[in-house]
């Protein structure tokens, strides 16, 4: 399922770091990646909740409470509330939503937990003229029926490395190819945009990337055919794609230059993580 364009992959601020740091779920994940994963998870879980709530009477009066528990406070807490408000307005007009953020050091992997209240009763239950869903519900309130199993998909945390520079991105699960490169012009939606100052990467539309069915692949565009691109030492001709591993390098060079001359490299690290 393609994700709405509100959640975009953002480039980390261009400041050098001494260490890439781990990006596995839990304590070693970077703050920017964890924030993106939590946004993705909130979008999925709240969207599914609203879709089910539409089958219930008085859904338009519902006050939804989204409790987000993370091991680190998000950098922009207001972004969670704005995202939640947009999803509810688009999927359940008239309902309201409040996001509550709680920090806990002992949150299990993947480093966050999202709970939505109140639990939804069976469609159409309750006496005529009365609300069928309470406006608030605490943890002690038993659900009216077993909660459905959460939808689990995967996202890929991608880190590009050049010298002391690190750029981090979150690739959502999608069957769409996403722009990947430098000097891409005005582009909306999810994108892997390399900062313009990183001249190690040729400008323009050379590569696309996608994370789909648990595999991340790079695709070579047909434009700028005067450049050669290699992924982990394998040539990537125009019109072809290659899977990427957990770490490696992307090499750029002019086709007219002799082997090794005028080439530049960007390293990469990739970690697949679950999104619930």
Number of helices: 2
Structural class: alpha+beta
- Helix fraction by DSSP (H/I, runs of at least 4): 10-25%
- The number of distinct β-strands equals 14
Average pLDDT over all residues? 76
Approximate shape: elongated
Major beta-sheet overview: 6 strands, antiparallel
Provide the β-strand percentage band: 25-35%
Runs in which pLDDT lies below 50 for 5 or more consecutive residues are 1-28, 123-145
Query: What gap, in angstroms, lies between the N and C termini?
Result: 14 Å
Radius of gyration, CA atoms, in whole angstroms: 22 Å
The helix-strand sequence is HEHEEEEEEEEEEEEE
Describe this structure in words.
It is a single chain. With 276 residues, this protein is of the alpha+beta class. It folds into 2 domains: 21-151, no CATH class; 154-275, Tumour Suppressor Smad4 (Sandwich), CATH 2.60.200.20. The chain has 2 helices and 14 strands. It has helices at 31-53, 77-91; strands spanning 63-70, 96-103, 112-117, 153-162, 165-171, 178-182, 192-194, 207-212, 215-220, 227-231, 234-235, 241-243, 247-254, 264-275. The longest helix is centred in the N-terminal third of the chain and has 23 residues, at 31-53. The radius of gyration is 22 Å and the shape is elongated. The two termini are 14 Å apart.
């Amino acid at each position: 399922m393609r994700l709405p364009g509100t959640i975009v992959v953002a480039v980390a601020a261009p400041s050098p770091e001494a260490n890439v740091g781990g990006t596995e779920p839990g304590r070693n994940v970077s703050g920017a990646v964890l924030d993106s994963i939590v946004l993705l998870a909130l979008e999925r879980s709240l969207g599914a909740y609203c879709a089910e709530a539409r089958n219930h009477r008085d859904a338009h009066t519902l006050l939804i409470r989204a409790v987000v528990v993370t091991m680190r406070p998000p950098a922009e807490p207001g972004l969670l509330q704005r995202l939640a408000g947009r999803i509810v307005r688009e999927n359940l007009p008239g309902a309201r939503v409040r996001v509550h953020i709680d920090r806990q050091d002992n949150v299990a992997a993947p480093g966050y937990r999202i709970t939505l209240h109140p639990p939804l009763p069976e469609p159409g239950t309750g006496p005529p003229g009365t609300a069928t869903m309470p406006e608030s519900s605490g943890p002690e309130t038993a659900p009216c029926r077993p909660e459905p199993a959460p939808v689990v998909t995967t996202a890929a945390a991608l880190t590009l490395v050049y010298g002391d520079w690190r750029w981090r991105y979150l690739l959502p699960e999608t069957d769409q190819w996403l722009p990947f490169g430098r000097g891409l012009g005005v582009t909306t939606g999810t994108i892997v945009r390399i900062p313009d100052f990183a001249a190690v990467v040729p400008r323009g539309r050379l590569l696309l990337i996608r994370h789909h069915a648990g595999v991340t692949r790079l695709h070579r565009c047909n434009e700028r055919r005067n450049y050669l691109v290699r992924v982990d030492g394998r040539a990537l001709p125009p019109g072809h794609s290659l899977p990427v591993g957990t770490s490696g390098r992307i090499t750029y060079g002019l086709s007219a230059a002799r082997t090794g001359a005028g080439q530049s490299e960007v390293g990469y690290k990739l970690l697949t993580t679950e999104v619930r």
